[in-house]
Amino acid sequence: MRKKIVVVGGVAGGASTAARIRRLDEQAEVVMFEKGPHVSFSNCSLPFHLSGIVEDSSRLLLMNPDSFKSRYNLDARTNSEVIRINRDEKTVTVRNVLTNEEYEESYDKLVLSPGAAPIIPEIKGVDEKHVFTVRNVVDIEKLQRAIVEKDAQNIAVIGGGYIGVEVAENLRLAGRNVTLVQSAPHILRAFDFGMAQILQKEMLDKGVELIVGDALVGITATQAILASGKKVRADIAVLAVGVRPETKLAEEAGLEIGLTGAIKVNQNYLTNDPHIYAVGDAIEVYHRLLHRPVRLALAGPAQRQARAVADHIYGITNQNKGVIGSTSIQVFDYAAAATGLTEEAARAAGFQVDSVYVISPDKVGLMPTSNPLHFKLVYELPTGRILGAQAIGKGNADKRVDVIATLITMGGTIDDLKDLELSYSPMFGTAKDVVNMAAFVANNIMSGRSRQVQVSEVRELVEAGAYFVDVREENEFANGHLKGAHNIPLSQFRERMEEIPKDRPVYIYCRSAQRSYNAVRALMGSGWDNVANVSGSFLGISLYEYFTDVQTGREPIMTAYNFK
Question: On the CB side of 374, how many CA atoms lie within 13 Å of its CA?
């Protein structure tokens, strides 16, 4: 008997489910409803239309109803909103949003992929004509049209998540004056505070006014008003404060909603109705590290969920391994990627953790395109199990994080990473890749062969008069150093180490913590037992301190910053 499968939602999860069903069953009747005018568009590419990187908005559309019909023999109906699920009758009620006509459509299996809607804060002015959100092609076209017609020069973007940062970047690339407002202490919460400082500096350097730790409380015709009382110029305001799952249809049908406020599904993405599945941004998923349900609005997991649903309908089993949350983003000249848990999230979840921060060339240093790659590895104590990683640089940050995502999925440890064999070419990496280097450092710390202090601890130590030794060469020291630091270049170190006291803690730094590690080992092998390496060293300290120094006007702890 021919199956009839109805899919609600024609983007990402919904469209992928429908296409997979067709590949499994040529005879199935598949009907896909989308309340908007477009199906199968590149949601993640929307902000790039604002800068002209995607010049023609039609390129954001990957498929249309006609191509779905000709390529997959699917009945894709746009401008068709499913307004009710009639579970007893196994039908859905559909409303044509153009004509308001309503009709019933039957199903054998129903797949819900309604997505998530932008959160609109309940504050004065959010309904003004110059206030926009970004969810679909229609939204981005309206925003771009308004900017051009108004010749808007000053744009406020509210929200420092992925959408907010990408919208701000692309508007700045288009030559607009952009202010990004983030209520949290830093942008991009997939990154720890220290790593986010690198990206915040990059946004400042590229001309974005960045305000963190301040919330939007109102919008006027020309300004965004913040909780601090600050007023931001806003010919146009873009709200990107987050999304909430579209659950109204499911709730009204009596489908179970989970602890996170999203649709609850089992390991096969079935709801509490055995004939109804749900995928994508509207559902809660199992986090394999936290061991609890979470919401994860990412395209990659949605695609895998879609495949699993289609397979389950046809009796093909899949092992649900849960999610870890792997993401990447381009922020002007920097690529940034993250996977698993941040150190902050791991500690909040009750893990005993430590982390290492390594700065290493992304390819062999003599290559003309070699640049520093900042890499943070988060791991569990005492097992050494890898819990997360973050990478930022002008090279392939995503490649390094993908390696860690694989290890997390396989339950890998720092010892596994230390011995992991990776491909090498001077144009693509180094013989000891940064991910291996991070594992070496973590292994040294866990075994007691080395001690470290994080860049976040340095300010307090400097202000307390701690004893720092800078082992860079004299010309490097002259170009900027920690206030009060003692300069003993590594090239002179063994001849001068007696200058270093043994009766107090000593902290060693260089540019990126590699020379300083050699100095620490030399001291520890010569009778000094209270010595620590500064993780990230002077480059890491400069990047960690800079944004807050600029924003607050506090006194720097160094004579000059060094970012090279």
Answer: 31
Residue 523's DSSP bridge partners are none
Place of tokens 């389950």: 312
For the chain, list residues with pLDDT below 50: none
Query: Which CATH fold topology does 4-116+244-313 show?
Result: FAD/NAD(P)-binding domain (3.50.50)
* Model confidence, pTM: 0.94
Question: What amino acid is encoded at 255 in this protein?
Answer: L
- What 3-state class would DSSP assign to 509? strand
Tokens describing residue 523 = 């001291």
**Closest of 356, 332, 328 to residue 200, by C-alpha:** 332
Residues 6+ apart with CB under 8 A from 62: 40, 41, 42
Check residue 250 and give its pLDDT.
98
Phi, psi (5° rounding) for residue 345?
-65, -40
* Percent of the chain as helix, strand, coil, to the nearest 5: 30, 25, 40
The token pair at 346 is 């791991």
Q: What's the rounded Cα separation, in Å, for the pair 303 and 17?
A: 8
Active-site choice (44, 117, 215, 497): 44
DSSP 8-state code for residue 43 = G
Q: Is 81 helix (H, G, I), strand (E, B) or coil?
A: strand
CATH fold of 131-241: FAD/NAD(P)-binding domain (3.50.50)
44 as an active site residue: the answer is yes
Residue 360 CA, chain-centre distance (Å), reads: 22
pLDDT digits (tens, 9 = 90+) for 123-135: 999 999 999 999 8
